[in-house]
Amino acid sequence: MAASGVVAVLRAPSADGFAAVADVLVAAGVTALEITLTSAGALEAIGGLRRQLPETVVIGAGTVLTEDDAKASIDAGASFLVAPVSVLGPQPVPFYPGAFTPTEVYTAHRAGAPVIKLFPAGGLGPGYLKDLRGPLPDVRIMPTGGIGLDDISQWLTAGAVAVGLGGPLIGDAATGGSLTALAARARHAVDAVAFARS
């Protein structure tokens, strides 16, 4: 997940279009995908993508809110779990809980979360992450929610281990929109990661 720099968050009314979207993302260099459980058919999509994509691509489940969600996601093939809040205990795969305040971030870190999802991050800005990492330099943070393609480099430079991108990256591609436009956005995101890390 950290190697990709970008976690593509796939959320749509139905997961039917996720296979085509995933092919485009991976071809562009995005190698971390989060399939949200709020999408109908998400568990089936996780299993299908695990069979479809190379082993170098990590596929996780998002909006995991219960232990039943977690078990079903892992059984489907998810290699990581993400939630918008801190609701679950230890899991057999990496779990990235959501947090917003310094206390929430630190509490999740102390509970053993390898990465904290800073959510919703867009209204906070990269400066918030930089300030947060001052007293908490060892906490690995993935800002998600309200982050645009042009914000990627700033967040990574501020100390993010990766950024989660939904709508600004996926657009309407999962519901019949242009896959060509998706490819251009994905390349833009990958280039932004490379720029920030150069």
UniProtKB/TrEMBL annotation:
The keyword Ion transport does not apply. Pathway: Carbohydrate acid metabolism. One of its GO terms (molecular function) is lyase activity. Transmembrane segments: none annotated. CDD domains: KDPG_aldolase (cd00452). Keywords: Carbohydrate metabolism, Lyase. The keyword Amino-acid biosynthesis does not apply. InterPro entries: Aldlse_KDPG_KHG, Aldolase_TIM, KDPG/KHG_AS_2. Homotrimer. PANTHER family: 2-DEHYDRO-3-DEOXY-6-PHOSPHOGALACTONATE ALDOLASE-RELATED, 2-KETO-3-DEOXY-6-PHOSPHOGLUCONATE ALDOLASE. Belongs to the KHG/KDPG aldolase family. This is 2-dehydro-3-deoxyphosphogluconate aldolase. The lineage of its organism: Bacteria, Bacillati, Actinomycetota, Actinomycetes, Micromonosporales.
